[in-house]
Amino acid sequence: MTSLALEPSVQVALVTAGSTVGVALLGIAAEFMRRQAKAINAVAEHAQEARDQVANTHTTNLRDDLDAVAYAIDRVLALQARHSDDIAALRTDISHERRERLAVAERLDDHVATTAV
User: What CA–CA distance (Å, rounded) separates 23 from 19?
Assistant: First the structure.
């Protein structure tokens, strides 16, 4: 059998180089883990901020509250449309009344002009 025995100085150099590489890899791994922990903490903070923004701190469900607001807005818009129709009808009535008033005023002017002579 062939023995792969190395000189003691080569063995020391290999152990030293291996240890140096091992320590460097451990340092890289520690830095990677530190960065990952920092990133995870940032994500956790952002998640907490988001939760604080949308958390419902009262007794009703947020979705139910939004549905109620949407229903109320729909009712307001429907009433506004009805009021717009009512205003349009009033404009038509006022326009008709104005035409009639002008016609009466014109007839009165004609009558006064014919009777004054």
Answer: 6
